[in-house]
Specification:
- With 164 residues, this protein is mostly helical.
- It has a domain at 82-164.
- Helix content is 71%, strand content 0%.
- The chain has 5 helices and no strands.
- The protein has helices at residues 3-10, 22-40, 48-63, 83-116, 122-160.
- The longest helix is centred in the C-terminal third of the chain and has 39 residues, at 122-160.
- It is flat and about 85 Å long.
- It starts with a helix and ends with a helix.
- The relative contact order is 0.08.
Length: 164
C-alpha cells in the first residue's frame, strides 16, 4: 500500500490526494494552450496620478532619517507643535487613575498582610502582598512612562490633520 493511500484509509475526513488524477492532464493541456494568449495580453498601466503620488511619498519616506527601532519615530531636534498640550491633556485625564492605583497599593500594603496571615504563614502572606504591590506599581510606572509617547504620536497626527 502506498503512503498516501495508507493515510487516506485512516483519515475520517476527505483525504488530501497528492497523486495525479485523470482530469489533471486535461487541465495541463488547457493551461498550455492558454499560456501564449496570456503572455501576449498586457496589463493596463496605472493612472499617472497614482504614479506621481507614489513617487512623492517614496521620496519623502527616503528623505527621513531612519528610525532606531521599528515603529519608533526617529529623533527630531524639536518637539512637534502641540506636544505639551497633548501631554498635559493626557496627564490630567490619567491622574485620577494613577491616584486610585497608588491608593489601592497603599491599602493593599496596609490591610492585606494581616488579613492573609489568618490563612497563611506571615512570610508567605508578605510575599504575596509584595508581589501584588510590585505588579501594581510596575503597571502604573509603565502607563505613566508611555504618556509622552502617546502625546508625541497624537501631536504628529494633529499636525497632519488626522483628528482622534
Amino acid at each position: 500500500m502506498r503512503p498516501c493511500a495508507r493515510r487516506a484509509s485512516c483519515c475520517k475526513r476527505t483525504p488530501q490526494v497528492t497523486e495525479l488524477r485523470p482530469d489533471d492532464a486535461w487541465l495541463a493541456t488547457e493551461l498550455a494552450a492558454l499560456a501564449p494568449v496570456l503572455d501576449r495580453t498586457r496589463a493596463p498601466a496605472p493612472p499617472p496620478a497614482l504614479l506621481e503620488r507614489t513617487l512623492r511619498m517614496a521620496a519623502a519616506e527616503l528623505a527621513r532619517t531612519p528610525a532606531l527601532l521599528p515603529g519608533v519615530a526617529s529623533f527630531r531636534p524639536q518637539l512637534p507643535v502641540g506636544f505639551r498640550r497633548e501631554l498635559a491633556r493626557l496627564l490630567v485625564t490619567s491622574l485620577p487613575a494613577l491616584a486610585l492605583g497608588f491608593a489601592w497599593a497603599a491599602l493593599l500594603l496596609w490591610l492585606a498582610p494581616a488579613w492573609l496571615a489568618h490563612w497563611l504563614p506571615a512570610g508567605v502572606a508578605l510575599a504575596l502582598v509584595g508581589a501584588q504591590l510590585v505588579a501594581v506599581l510596575s503597571a502604573l510606572g509603565l502607563v505613566t512612562a508611555s504618556l509622552p509617547l502617546f502625546a508625541h504620536r497624537r501631536a504628529l497626527l494633529r499636525m497632519r490633520g488626522v483628528e482622534s
